[in-house]
């Protein structure tokens, strides 16, 4: 699966235990965040990991969860969402995850809503 994802997705990842430590929560809660759509994980090198860019210090990047939920509700798979988040878009410029991290999460959520419906 990771072969078809943009390289930026797997460029820097964190294990579930590393995410749990950064967020000061149990690893089981990280799995729950993934199920709820607040985070996305993927298998990379036979390990379940989370892209490091999904975290901002000791919290999930503001606006990421809402974007994931909108896209999941619109029928997108986690693989498709990861691909979209990390694909460069000249109209932004940059990638959607970069724009979210830069505080432009409302714009990205609007784009996600337009894609999903």
Keywords:
117 residues; alpha+beta
Can you give a write-up of this model?
- This protein is an alpha+beta fold.
- The protein has one domain (2-116).
- 51% of the residues lie in helices and 13% in strands.
- The protein has 7 helices and 5 strands, in the order H-E-H-H-E-E-E-E-H-H-H-H.
- The chain has helices at 7-11, 16-23, 27-36, 64-73, 78-86, 96-101, 105-116, and strands spanning 13-15, 42-44, 47-51, 55-56, 59-60.
- The strands form 2 sheets. It has a 3-stranded antiparallel sheet with strand order 1-3-2. A two-stranded antiparallel sheet has the order 4-5.
- A hairpin with a 2-residue loop joins strand 4 (55-56) and strand 5.
- Helix 2 packs across helix 3 (27-36).
Instruction: Tell me roughly what share of residues is in helical segments.
Output: 40-55%
Mean pLDDT: 92
Largest sheet: 3 strands, antiparallel
Q: Ranges with pLDDT <50 over ≥5 residues? A: none
List the helices and strands and how they pair.
Layout: H1 7-11, E1 13-15, H2 16-23, H3 27-36, E2 42-44, E3 47-51, E4 55-56, E5 59-60, H4 64-73, H5 78-86, H6 96-101, H7 105-116
Antiparallel strand pairs: 1-3, 2-3, 4-5
Helix pairs in contact: 2-3, 4-7
């Amino acid at each position: 699966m990771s072969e078809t994802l943009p390289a930026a997705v797997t460029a820097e990842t964190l294990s579930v235990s590393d995410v749990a430590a950064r967020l000061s929560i149990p690893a089981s809660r990280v799995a729950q965040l993934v199920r709820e759509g607040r985070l996305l994980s993927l298998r990379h090198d036979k390990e379940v990991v989370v892209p490091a860019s999904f975290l901002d210090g000791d919290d999930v990047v503001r606006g990421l969860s809402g974007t994931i939920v909108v896209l999941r509700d619109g029928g997108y798979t986690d693989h498709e969402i990861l691909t979209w988040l990390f694909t460069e878009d000249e109209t932004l410029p940059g990638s959607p995850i970069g724009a979210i991290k830069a505080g432009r999460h409302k714009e990205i959520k609007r784009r996600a809503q337009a894609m999903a419906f």
